Amino acid sequence: MKSISHGVLIFNGDAQLLLCHATGSPYWDIPKGGGTLTETGRQTAVRETFEECGLRLAPEDLLPLGCFAYRAGKDLQLYAVLSGNFDAHACTCASQFVDRRGRPRPEMDAYRWAGFDELPQWCAKSLVAVLTRALSLKAILAQLQALKQRHTDVDPRARSPRVHRTRMKARTAPRAAE
Predict the structure, then answer these.
(1) Which of 57, 69, 81, 41 is nearest to 171 (CA)?
(2) pTM of the full structure
(3) Are 139 and 131 in contact (CB under 8 A)?
(4) What are φ and ψ of residue 66, in 5° steps?
């Protein structure tokens, strides 16, 4: 049986995704991980984002994108959120693992924003395949921006959403054209 990793695509208004560098790996990743028996997929994605990036999200703010073939033995259940621009270097990782030498190390050790066209140079091929072939990142960003606009139209006092304060209704995400 395949395991499922729950992750969040954090977009900013400049058409970029937040990437996290996986400690000891040549690749950059998105915040993601496995769940517990008591968590929903959204709750897992929110917890992993907090543990790996220090960002607080509310489960109801996540736009569900679907479940995608990722690697042999593992699928990715993805969600998306639109964030305001912030300094990615301010992110911090609270989750740790013990390396081969017995040292505790953070799961993620660096953060950056990357344009959609930059993903192949930073991310592993399996993640790039999901992000660029199975999904249309431009269409997802447009959908997130439209949801933000609708929210603002309903409440003109609404501030620009921040990662920890977005309130958007979930809709099905667009897929990449075949």
Answers:
(1) 81
(2) 0.84
(3) no
(4) 120, 180
Residue 159 tokens read as 């501030």
Asked if 9 contacts 83 with a C-beta cutoff of 8 angstroms, the reply is no
Would you write out the chain's pLDDT as a tens digit for each of its 178 residues? 789 999 999 999 999 999 999 999 999 999 999 998 899 999 999 999 999 999 999 898 899 999 999 999 999 999 999 998 899 999 999 999 999 999 999 999 999 999 999 999 999 999 999 999 999 999 999 999 998 887 655 544 444 444 543 333 333 444 444 3
What does the block give as tokens for 91? 């992110």
* Residue 117 identity (one-letter amino acid): D
SS3 content of the chain, % helix, strand, coil (to 5): 30, 30, 40
